[in-house]
Amino acid sequence: MNYQNLFNEGKIGNLTVKNRIVMPPMGTNLAGIEGEVTDHLIAYYEERAKGGTGLIIVEFTCIDYEYGKGFVRQLRLDDDRFIPGIHRLADAIHKYGSKVFIQIHHAGRQSNSSLIHGKQIVAPSNVACAAVGEAPRELTTIEVKELVNKFVQTAVRCKQAGIDGVEVHGAHGYLINQFLSPEANLRTDEYGGSFENRMRFIKEIIDGIREMCGEDYPVTVRLSVDEFIEGGIDLELGKDICRYLEKLGVDGLHISCGTYDSMDKIIESPLFEQGWRVYLAKEIKKEVNIPVITVGSIREPKFVENILSEGRADFVAIGRGLIADPEWVNKTKEGREAEIRKCINCLHCIHAAMGNSHIRCSLNARAGRELEFKELQRLPSNENRHVVIVGGGPGGMEAARILTLKGYNVTLFEKDSKLGGQLHLVTDPIYRKKMTWHINYLSNEMKRLNIDVRLNTEATVEEIITYNPYAVLLATGGIPKLPQVEGNDLDHVYTYEDVKLQEKVFTNNRVTVVGSGMTCHGTVRRLAEAGNDVTYVEIPTKASKRIGPETRLRLLNKLKQENVDIVTDHKLVKILPDCIIVEDLVSGKHSEIESEYIIVAMGVEAYNPLEKTLRGQMENVFVLGDAAGYGSLSEATRDGFEKAYVLESIVTHKREEEVLETV
What is the separation, in whole angstroms, between the first and last Cα of the chain? Predict the structure, then answer.
């Protein structure tokens, strides 16, 4: 496809950007303990610049570390001592021809006391954010003016550090957004009340940056033009704000939506369609003549090109897509679209960063670890090492991919007729499409790298030994886990695989599904759509912990629309021929749920039939992914990547241990 618009230069103010792809700001937790730039953070952004991104907007950067912090290891630029680190970051990005902005930020009421050393959080008014659950202290008028100056001084430091422009964070429910919103701003001074007064805070910030940094220094604003909360900013008010900002002289608008109280609109789950937020940018573009950046789970190059060619936006932000594949832009430019590892919206990156880890990706094990895993070291040309991999799921294919790139000869056995393993069990229509992207990516890599893939072939110990392999990686996956209760072996008890692979067809039956997680929800919905009378008993599992609360509620609402009876806060006690017995976790009371069939969807347990025999006959046998008891896409991918990356070291260490044991 000809991506003429995507690769056209674009202008933001007087700044020329080499293409229309923007990396939007996303928190990484890669900053240092005091908020300083680290080598890991530089390597992370440098990788995305090297991959061809036109403009990188560095993650939200704190202008007031005492009260404005919004993340555990949030980047900061509230003091001159942080300028040298930011300068190093700018230099690393610039050497690839990319431009770089920094997003300047204050969390306001969307901070919390634990982030700011026990102090009370601050806001325009003492109106709490429900998602945070802490009452803020209303800022005094003097404090508001001091904060204006802090935003301005941070912008000055950005310019001093060689940053090409600043993005003022007026979105997602943070402090500036709170001043703009009639829901959060109930002030009676010059910064509250009328539209003009609610705009005064951001106006003074913009005016101050213009005065201190010059009219030519690019300034964009990120906005939630629809907060999706009662009494907040809606699209019509969002349009008014955008027109006002254009008159102030801002150079571009980065159009988003939502607050912490509508978090699923900011960070979309797999259940959202690609590009669902683009309509907001389209509407704003009708109102203004300055560049508009759109965002919202945009993954495919052709989708980007259509947005641009249809005039719905001037630039397209690809966020998590560049976490999953830093080379998205270069691969598109070189006609290698099939090699793009597209983000599937699984939220692993978000859960990792919010769980006080650094940013991670379930598809790209190097994300946030670029210094740990640098360029692959190929085997010497005179080395001819063969590795056998058993299992064509994501872990096995990722290991095959990395080993082949390192120069190994790889043979991969898959007993099924297709590659992908458990990924094929995802049935939600929107999520399935995204999961198919990843199956197709990995399958294409097997073809592109000429890996010897043996489909419809169940590996045996005897056949593996004939290859005299340097190592064997067992990625044989898992089998459905059954609850350890009486009756789990009765004839009317089935697993999610029986439903999803249609080994058993259920129609017009009374069915109870026990479990949780994405696979479980897909199983329940499929049964309901087939006309069954379905009861869903939600039992917490390891898989359910990977689903955020907003996604869980969205899934439950979808099931309610299918007339599914939902039972929460109970545990399974016993399975009987015509019912199950459950116990209320609060009262301890037992009750019966009549059922003709019981479907169990409680995750997987390791399936590893070859390891014991192989270890008795050869060295260097390794188990990875579900077969090693991990049980998730992210863990399987990481395990396959890591074992392949360090295979020689593992083998050498193993041999050294064996030598020591014989001494």
Answer: 64
pLDDT at 656 over 70: no
pLDDT at 181 over 90: yes
Question: Which residue in this structure is represented by tokens 């063969």?
Answer: 386
Nearest alpha carbon to residue 74 among 128, 46, 110: 110
Q: Mean pLDDT across the stretch 561-573?
A: 94
List, for residues 381-438, the tens digit of each pLDDT value. Answer: 888 899 999 999 999 999 999 999 999 999 999 999 999 998 988 877 888 899 999 9
pLDDT at residue 660 in the model? 46
CA dihedral in degrees (96, 101, 102, 104; nearest 10)?
Answer: 180
Nearest-angstrom CA–CA distance, 541 and 603: 7
More confident: 619 or 171: 171
Task: Work out the pLDDT band at 661, boundaries 50, 70, 90.
Answer: low
From CA 321, how far away is CA 345, in angstroms rounded?
A: 9
Concatenate the DSSP letters of all residues of 224-240 into one string. ES---STTS--HHHHHH
What domains, with CATH codes, occur in the chain?
A: 10-354 (3.20.20.70), 386-479+606-662 (3.40.50.720), 482-602 (3.50.50.60)
Rounded-to-integer distance, Cα 566 and Cα 538, Å: 7
Cα distance between residue 529 and residue 186, in whole Å: 47
Q: CA 479, CA 491: separation in Å to the nearest integer?
A: 18
Catalytic residues: 174
Helices and strands in the chain: count of H runs, count of E runs: 20, 27
Tell me phi and psi for residue 509, to 5 degrees: -115, 165
Sign of the dihedral defined by the CA atoms of residues 493, 497, 500, 504, in that order: negative
